[in-house]
Amino acid sequence: MTKRNAPVADAEVIVVGAGPAGLALAIALAQEGVRTVLLGEVRTARDGRTVALFDPSIRLLDAIGAWHGLQMQAAPLVHMRLVDATDNLFRPPPVTFNAGEIGLDAFGYNIENATLVSALSALADRTAKLVRVAASATAFSAGHDLAEVSLDDGSILRAPLVVAADGRNSRMRADAGIETREWSYPQTAVTAILSHSRDHRDTSTEFHTRSGPFTLVPLLGLRSSLVWVCSPHEAERLAALDDESFALAVERQARSMLGRMRLEGGRGSVPMSGLAVSRFTGNRIAVAGEAAHVFPPIGAQGLNLGIRDVANLRDAVIDARTRGLDIGSPEALAPYERGRRLDVRMRTRSVDALNRTLLAHFLPADLLRGAGLIALDLIGPLRRFVMREGLAPHVRLPRLMSRTGAADPLLL
């Protein structure tokens, strides 16, 4: 009998999905000398969506060499204002958070999603040890030594570790048998970019309304991005308005805080929902980004969590290689599983609880939320703790997000 040759790995890691999280992870791994394949096409539609990247996420982008080219296209978030607009009997005063209170020039930066993806894609093209394949992944299977990813062109790629960063409907996650829990809200998020006659003064303002948050986040110049969470019926009404009438509706909802408004570009509309996974790793696979968690667009947690996935998984892979471990083994992936479970579940519960209290016409819930806003306004140590926790978990940050380059606690 002729002995069959064992399959040969095409890479050390295959990253499936070329969104922001997949791109950033592939770049971060390849820069450490990890032979990496990135699968998927880049989509850069300018649909009015932006992302507010918090300080730890900025540190990671800076560490991989992406931030220098992006900073001039991003607006700093120096102040964050919360306004109770629920018209309840117990209405607390607005609360403003200032980045200087926790030693930062800005909490983070707001940038158009398409701009971020384009810059990361260009950096990926220049990164050694990173091979890009535009074909789509159609199936995943895990063997004893290697995982296999089938492509839509009929070819197969093999690696010790596959990372599913292919979005909320991840085929890789499903094939790996990682279960999910999904839920929805009776809400739709309307997105757009608008110019206005008054200066936003680097202040993000979030109005808490009975239908959900109405948020205006600064962009460069006299421009802001909008996330208006409302009922599906209201979203349909807004979609039917012409551009001038839509801008006027936004202006009125914002209480003319930024003056006269004008729509720039297109509008988006996203049904509000969430997704959580039963586990973050499986046999020779890890999930990251929206394949691991989906959030309503509240509190800017979604992509910032995805970037923390990137930083944690990068550390797990590099540490496993240093120790001589099989990087797709349960032992190698255990730190990633532990690290992401607590962080993601805490964020999921807090965002879900906030959104549901806004929807509940329930006096005790209104009183509790109002009392919390008053406490944040009056109690400095509590306010600073909440600001720090909003940026990142109060635990050891992964190396690319720390100020020292080592896995240090978040000291702000």
UniProtKB/TrEMBL annotation:
Record's keyword terms, sorted: FAD, Flavoprotein, Monooxygenase, Oxidoreductase
InterPro entries xref list: FAD-bd (IPR002938), FAD/NAD-bd_sf (IPR036188), UbiH/COQ6 (IPR010971), UbiH/COQ6_monooxygenase (IPR051205)
Presence of the UniProt keyword Flavoprotein in the record: yes
Cofactor dependency: FAD
EC number per UniProt: 1.14.13.-
Domain FAD-binding: 11-318
One Gene Ontology MF term: FAD binding
Pathway connected to this protein: Cofactor biosynthesis; ubiquinone biosynthesis
Source organism, top-level taxon: Bacteria
Enzyme class: oxidoreductase
Biological process according to GO: ubiquinone biosynthetic process
Keyword Flavoprotein annotated: yes
NCBIfam families per record: PRK07494.1 (NF005691), Ubi-OHases (TIGR01988)
Family named by the database record: Belongs to the UbiH/COQ6 family.
Descriptive protein name: 2-octaprenyl-6-methoxyphenol hydroxylase
Provenance organism: Chelatococcus composti
